[in-house]
Structure prediction request, 286 residues.
Amino acid sequence: MLSSQNYTLMLIENIPDLFLSNLEKIPEVFIHDFRMTSDIVKSKINLRMNMFSFLQVGKKHVHFGGSSVKVDKSQSLLIKKGNCLWTELLDTEKIYYCKLLFFSEKILKTFLEKHVSKAQNDKKEIPFFTIENDHYITNFLNSLSAINEHPSLLSDDFLSIKFEEIMLYLCCKYGSNFKSYLQSLVVEETSPFKEIVERNVYSNLRLEEIAFLCNMSLSTFKRHFINEYKASPGKWLQEKRLEKAKTLLEQGHSKASDIYLEIGYNNLSNFSSAFKNKFGFSPKDT
Prediction:
């Protein structure tokens, strides 16, 4: 395992390449201990291998093209390779620690052929699977830490056995749901442009970040957006957000201070100004 290093805010990080600079080739299974002592807010990640993130201290929020997930130390994640944004937050003692386990598609296919019968995957594919941490997983992670103390054990064969162990356990724990998710990992699929855009209409992501989730530069994203929606992305998103805000306020159950974050604005002042410019009256007069 390599020593951890900090991410540069909003630069695209290729992972696990970032942790493999001292290795001649990418292994089939790779383990990395990641620790930090300062919050990392919204890093751009190009995840080039499927990855377990066994969170042990702190909190993590991962935003994908069509969904997002938040976990603390009581949960871990299995994340599909691809582009995502993630935020990592320290606990009250100013520490963040997770153990990352990367695995190749080749070793995944070998596992599926050996242990999981082929079945039609009818579920909508999502880029993550949430795992509830328990005593077995804690013991498994402790065994990985013990491996780190004995470099002679860091062989492909030994790590392949550890990978098979945790996969078999999770198959037993979660049954067909987990098996179905594993099968979805070997299906190459590009997220549709419109689906990503429309799932993030009311998020507070910037255009640059939505473009990243679409695997596009900002300029390419804008051109594609105008071709698709016949409007500029900034204007289109604002119209959608303000129309929803007006509907929510007219229902009489919410105030502007309750909803501005929900519809994608970062502060109440900007929301109130945009609302008044569009409708001619302030949100509090709705």
